[in-house]
Write a structure and sequence with these properties.
single chain; alpha/beta; Rossmann fold; two-stranded parallel sheet; 12 helices; 40% helix; 17% strand; globular; binds uridine-5'-diphosphate
Length: 326
Amino acid sequence: MAHCLVTGGAGFIGSHLVETLLARGDSVTVLDNLSTGRGDNLSHLSQHPRLQIVTGSITDQPLLSEVVREAEVIYHLAAAVGVRLVADDPVRTIETNIYPTELLLRLAAQRNCRFFLASTSEVYGKNPKERWNEDDDLQFGSTTHPRWAYGCSKAIDEFLALAYHTKFGLPVVIGRFFNVVGPRQVGHYGMVVPRFLDAALAGDPLFVYDDGGQTRCFAHVREVVDCVVGLTALPSACGRVYNIGSDHPITIRGLAEEVLRLTGSRSPIEYRAYAEAYGRDFEDVRRRVPNLERLEATLGRKPRLTLPEILSDILKWRLGEARPVT
Ligand code: UDP
C-alpha cells in the first residue's frame, strides 16, 4: 500500500478521496490550510492511525518539501476554487493555483512520485461545442472578466504537468472535473446544488441566474473519486488529460425544479441577473457537457448515478447532519 499526499484533503472532494484511500489501506498525509476546506470534513477520521493532517498552506515552500518527503503518490487538489471566490479575488487565485503546483511538480519529479493533478472543466472556457473532448480548444473570454482567471490558472497547471511528464518522465495524470457534487459540499463559494438544497429546506426562494437555460452535468463525488484513484494507478493514463464527471446535461431551471420535487418544498423559483449575483463583469458558460469516451476506454467505467439519485443522497446527508453547516 502506498503513502499518499493529498493537498486540499480537508476540502469537499479531498475529504472523500482521503476516505477512499484509507479504506483501501493507503497511508495519507493531508496538507490543507482550511480556507475553503473544513476541519470538520475529516473529523470522523482524525484518530485514524494511517492519517496525518498538516494544517498549512501550499504556498509555504519549506512545509511543502517536508510533506512530500514520504510520499509515493501525490494528489494535488489544493486550489482557489468556486466561481464566486475567483471572481472576488483573482490575485489569490493565480498565486494559489500556479506557483505551488510548479514547486510540487518539481519535488515530485525528484522522487518520481505518481502525480494526479486536479483540473477543471473551466479550462474549456466558453467553447460552444455540444460535448467537449480533451483535445478541444480552450476558449477564454477577455482578461477583464475575472472569471477566466480560474480556468487560465488551471490551464497553466496542465501545461506544467504535461511538460514535467515529457521532460522528466513524471507519471502524471490530469483530471478535469465537471460540476462535482455530494455530501459535505457547501454553498458559500457559489456552488448551485447546495445553495438550492439549503434554500428549498429553509423555505427560501431558489435564485436561478439569468434565464436558467444554461446547462450543466452533475456527478457524485464518490464516483469521481473512484475515477481519480483508478486513473492514477494506471500506467496507460500517464501523461494524459481526462474529463471526469457525468455526461447527462440538465438546465439550471430543471435542477431547481428537481430540487423542489425531491424536497417537497414550496419555495418559489426567482430569476436574477448575473450582474446582481457576481458583479458587472461576469460571464457565464452556457453549456458544459463532457465527452467521456477517453475515460471509459482507459478505465472501463464512468460516473453513472442519475441526478435524482445524487440529490437524494445529498439530502439524506443534509437531513442527518445535526450541526448547522457554517
Ligand atoms: N447558479 C444559479 N443560482 C445559484 C448558483 C449558481 O443559478 O444560486 C447557476 C450559475 O450561474 C451557473 C450554474 O448555476 O450557471 C452552475 O453554477 P456553479 O457555481 O455551481 O458551477 P459552475 O458550473 O458555474 O462552475
